[in-house]
Design goal:
With 242 residues, the chain is α+β, with helices and mostly antiparallel strands. It contains 6 helices and 14 strands. The chain has 2 domains: 80 residues, Phosphorylase Kinase, domain 1; 136 residues, ATP-grasp fold, B domain (D-amino Acid Aminotransferase, Chain A, domain 1). 37% of the residues are buried. Bound molecules: adenosine-5'-diphosphate, thymidine-5'-phosphate (TMP) and aspartic acid. The site of adenosine-5'-diphosphate (ADP) has 17 residues, from strand 2, strand 7 and strand 12.
């Protein structure tokens, strides 16, 4: 079975920005990137034209770069403008965040000014739970509640930092600062793979010269030109949006 012959079956789950479909093959899913854009755990939701297509192609490009750098991912291939085929993972209910520069919830939580360099970069875990507003958790919580075992925790951390090494350089080469990002992992036949997406919806990217925001903070903060900013990043990286 190849990505071109895989058949789409019933919807398994509709998230805030993507819909997940079963396929005729139990080990694979189709991710449909919708135009829905959500912030503040679903409190603010709008449709932004072209965003589904831009994010689908953007994430495919990044996943391929990460695979080439030795980070195993769920990505199999783009199958239509807004859809990709992925390996079906047993997801950990955890978000892994690395921050190179202070922004967002870190600034609120610790009273730090936005833009302060973090050296070494900071790592944080969050519980994936919209009702609880994705609370920050630590490794002890993860093990005590059985969300992942110690080995999986170490692997997710190591892979999240490996992603940082690869992507800070990739974005720097495009004149961009990778401020922070969120990753989700899951298990596939015993192996831990990077799942979900890597797009400007789930990271912060600033122009290296002007520090102009080119990510979902444009939506969160009502700055406008959201998808245009994502397209600008994609263009600078060389993502094929045609
Ligand atoms: P959310 O659930 O946060 O609203 P999305 O709208 O992006 O997020 O929905 C996509 C869902 O699919 C997420 O819950 C994510 O954890 C899950 N997911 C992503 N990749 C995979 C995969 N390869 N296998 C199984 N589930 C996945
Ligand atoms: P934060 O500053 O809101 O904690 O977010 C840190 C980074 O992780 C930022 O790039 C946005 C991303 N993120 C998500 O994409 N989804 C989430 O649910 C959370 C908590 C963070
Ligand atoms: N990802 C979360 C949401 O979609 C949080 C955020 O991006 O602000 O609501």
């Amino acid at each position: 079975m190849t990505k071109d012959t895989m058949e789409k079956r019933e919807e398994l789950y509709a998230g805030k920005a993507k819909s997940v479909y079963l396929t005729d093959e139990p080990d694979h899913l189709i991710l449909h990137y919708r135009n829905d854009t959500s912030a503040f755990d679903g409190e603010k939701i709008e449709q932004l034209e072209r965003k589904g297509e831009v994010n689908n192609k953007f994430s495919a490009f990044i996943m391929q770069k990460l695979e080439a750098a030795g980070v195993p991912t769920h990505h199999e291939g783009v199958i239509s403008a807004e859809e990709s085929l992925v390996k079906k993972l047993d997801m950990f209910p955890i978000e892994c965040v690395v921050r190179n520069i202070a922004a967002g919830s870190l600034c609120k939580r610790l009273g730090v000014e936005e833009g302060v360099n973090l050296n070494p970069p900071t790592f944080e875990f969050f519980l994936k739970n919209d009702q609880l507003h994705d609370p920050m958790i630590n490794e002890s919580h993860i093990r005590s509640f059985g969300w992942a075992d110690g080995e999986a925790v170490e692997k997710m951390k190591a892979l999240t930092f490996k992603v940082n090494d690869t992507l800070t350089q990739l974005f720097a080469d495009a004149g961009l600062l990778l401020v922070d990002y969120k990753l989700e992992f899951g298990r596939y036949k015993g192996e831990i793979l990077l799942g979900d997406e890597f797009t400007p919806d789930g990271c912060r990217l600033w122009d290296a010269e002007t520090r102009k925001k080119l990510d979902k903070d444009r939506f969160r903060q009502g700055l406008g030109s959201v998808v245009e900013a994502y397209e600008e990043v994609a263009r600078r990286l060389g993502v094929d949006l045609s």
